[in-house]
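A further point concerns the way the authors explain their paired sequence and structure data. The central task, working out the structure tokens from the amino acid sequence alone, is never made concrete. I therefore recommend that a typical entry be quoted early in the introduction. An entry of this sort, consisting of the sequence and the corresponding backbone structure tokens, reads as follows:
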Amino acid sequence: MKKLLLTFVLSLFGVMSFAQIEGKWKTVDDETKQAKSIVEIYKKTDGKYYGKVTQLLIKPANPNCVDCKDDRKNKPILGMEIIRGLKKDGDEFTGGTITDPKTGKTYKCTIKRSGDQLNVRGYIGLSLIGRTQTWSKVN
């Protein structure tokens, strides 16, 4: 009976941690397909998830977000919070935004984890109209 209970608890823990997005993730440039940056996703005290650029793997033409329209305008990309306000909804994280520092545009965001990868979808209006990037877990 103890072995069965232990197996159940460990399985439950594995499933719960599988659905989490916290940690460091490698992003990929859509055009060159090269690793672009490392984004760390974390949970704040408000219970929502945020992500900031912790490392640049490709030197950008401009190290600041000159085209950002909000409080991030002209701020350094390194250390910038690009994901804001995601909430866990089943096996997805939704309701937040993601900002592309290259263009300064902000999109609605949905993230779903699949193994050691995140499917990060940015869109305007309907989720059908947008694009998805695959980010890889950094160990």
